[in-house]
Protein: Fe2OG dioxygenase domain-containing protein
Amino acid sequence: MATDFKSIPIIDIGPLLSKSDDPDMGSDPGVAQVVEQLDRACREAGFFYVKGHGVPDPLVKEVRSIARKFFHLPYEEKLKIKMTPEAGYRGYQRLGENITKGVPDLHEAIDCYTEIKPGRYGALGKPMEGPNQWPQYPPNYKELMEEYISLCSGMIFCPLFTFVCSSELSRKIMRGIGLALGGSPSEFEGDRAGEAFWVTRIIGYPGVPDANGDNKTDNDVGCGAHTDYGLVTLVNQDDDITALQVRNLSGEWISAPPIPGTFVCNIGDMLKIWSNGLYESTLHRVVNSNAKFRVCVAYFYEPNYDAAVEPLDFCIQKSGGVRKLGKAVYGEHLVAKVQTNFA
Structure:
């Protein structure tokens, strides 16, 4: 359960990453310190910054730069990869097309997902089947984004499939969270997230002057208050614009200002369920009151698409033996959210 936190903690996960494939990682003093910090952050805020993550800073900046170039193209060019249900909800959304709790959001975006081969998950996977839509311009957009996603997730890309490679930032963070909950490092592998699904949203938020025109919506919130769907999110945001806000227990909106060299990381709904509510998927929103156009690349590390998610036995025991949350199937949860977030 979130508390009345007033700021977002910063965690250096370098010691965790360096030992994350060691069978005895839990006994390492450096890992133990990181695990303790993860546990506190996940209980108190559901949000934290990670530094020492190993993703090259030039790449972190370049993905935002190339995203900004795309968003500055004419609408006619951007609409060549328009998101539709027929495209598996993959592609470009115009300003105001994304809906949060019935209200249009003041942002535009490209949404992409793990590519699902037709028939792989039967009816469960049907709405999300198909390849991602990548723009022709700027050049190398697809290649750069896929390189970035591979470092966040540990995936090598080929048509309609993903395969594990050695760079697995999100999986390694989840190994630390498994220990933080009191389980094993492999708690969120196998049938739970051994073939983790991923989502990436490349988002552009107009600055205040840009909101006064033909594309203005009735709402000035870039993205309304919501929780994320899966396990953990890595947020790569512009270095010079503060717009992300996180709600504490008292209902105050606490800013998560950009800190160069870090990602903002937060807990999703499925991890909240597995933890039996010990860890919170905290409400957050985006309000860009700056005159500048803001770019954010949000990477979401999710369970296996067909994973059945329910509170873990040892988390129930840590909660006084009371099961506080029900069961969900991740793919059903994702599809329900996607289909209500698209106008």
